Amino acid sequence: MASILIIEDEPVLARNLRDSLQHTGHDAMLAATGEEGLEAARLAPPDLVLLDYRLPGIDGLEVIQKLRRRCGSAAIIMMTAHGNIDTAVEAMKAGASDFLTKPLDLQELGLVVERVLKHRQATASLDYFRQRERADSARDQILGQSPATRTVRSFIERITASPALTADPPPSILITGETGTGKDLVARVIHYDGPRRDGQFVHVTCTAMPDNLVESELFGHVKGAFTDARTDKRGLFELADGGTIFLDEIGHMKPSLQSKLLTVLEQRTIRRVGGTGERKVDVHVIAATNRSIEDAIETGDLREDLYHRLRVLTLHMPPLRSRGDDVVLLGEHFLSLHSARFGLPIQPFDEQALEVMRHYDWPGNVRELMHTIESAVLISEGPSIRAEHLNIQPAENHGQVQVDMPAMQTSIVLDFADNGPKLDEIEYQIIQAALEFSKHNLSRAARLLGISRDAVRYRLEKYGKQGDSKPD
């Protein structure tokens, strides 16, 4: 049922319209002038307005303009006994959804009302999902405080704030990383944080499309191009025109199609399957892969020239195991999310569960963590989520420890399993790295390390590895 406001100065027609609409289940209100209609709309914003063109006082076009400012989501159907093409064009330009001429056929009016209301509902639903997707793709959805996570956020901030993405064409971005590390989220954040946020974001999973339809899906086809091509069809590149196309798992795309993709990237034009004309497309291309680029190029699965065309900008997504206590922060986020989703009270992790989370390898990365917490929320009976609820086992002999170095905005991972590194060995390697960087100038190496020349010399002598260091 919809709320409908009828602004009509002929009392008999107005009552007939109201009775007809109420008979079909709608809630209808009457107003005899434009001013009365605007006041009624202010007090109770309607879903639809049936508006007479000629009214005492302000006319229908002025009412449309004021309605658009006061309750912009309402649909408007203009009615007039003096209909002509110019009047209809004026009404549609002002913001009317449809235009009817008097005398009105109530059956026709009912059909138009239902069509306009369905279109309004579809538009509202689309706006809702777009807003929700934009909210879910905000930069603050990239959770974590580890140096690796801060590096990812810093990359996004720099690229979306620069004028690069407004260039013609914008630079392609290649996102690499293991499965489940959040490559899709980062691509969406770049889109919705950048200048193309009002355009479409089209996500293409290259492995999900049948081989015989990939080209048609990406570039479209013309009627009769193949057996099932009964009409012309726009491809995903055309749908993304003015926005972003995200080519996920590009490393698995057929080599024969990679050459056509390379042409699109270089010329920014597409040709539909079976067509002869070229169509220009303005798209920002973001690609992602979880494969080793070197291996894919070596085996011929990825064209090297396509790789270089895609990697104008490159971002590597760190695995969860290298992000330190980010796993706890993310775990608590998913705990809150799934507890609210299932209507269950939030139960904290106990200390053993936290330790298991910290020391597990998480081969499926953030995606695996999310589903692990989802399961734990469902099977836990309180008062806390324990290690057994996580249903994961740390790898045998797991000894990896991440050491965060905030001042340097980096971190190092030490593996103490199987007679891991000793302090003397680590210290010696750092001193050797400083000596190599300083071209074996002892004084400069000492300054880099923040210790004295004598301290460097002492440590080298202590380890019995004096080396080729120069005195100054």
Your description of this structure?
28% of the residues are buried. The strands form 4 sheets. The chain has a 5-stranded parallel beta sheet with strand order 2-1-3-4-5, sandwiched between helices. Strands 7-8-11-6-12 form a 5-stranded parallel beta sheet. The chain is an alpha/beta fold. The chain is built from 19 helices and 14 strands.
The third-level CATH topology of the largest domain is: Rossmann fold
Category by helix and strand content? alpha/beta
Arithmetic mean pLDDT: 86
| Strand proportion | 5-15%
Order of strands side by side in the largest beta sheet? 2-1-3-4-5
Proportion of helical residues: 40-55%
Report the major sheet: 5 strands, parallel
**What best-fitting shape do the alpha-carbon axes yield?**
elongated
- Uncertain runs are none
Class of the largest domain in CATH?
A: Alpha Beta
CATH architecture of the largest domain: 3-Layer(aba) Sandwich
Distance between the termini: 87 Å
Q: Calculate Rg over CA atoms.
A: 32 Å
**CATH superfamily placement of the largest domain:** P-loop containing nucleotide triphosphate hydrolases
Number of separate strands? 14
Count of alpha and pi helical runs = 19
Total domain count: 4
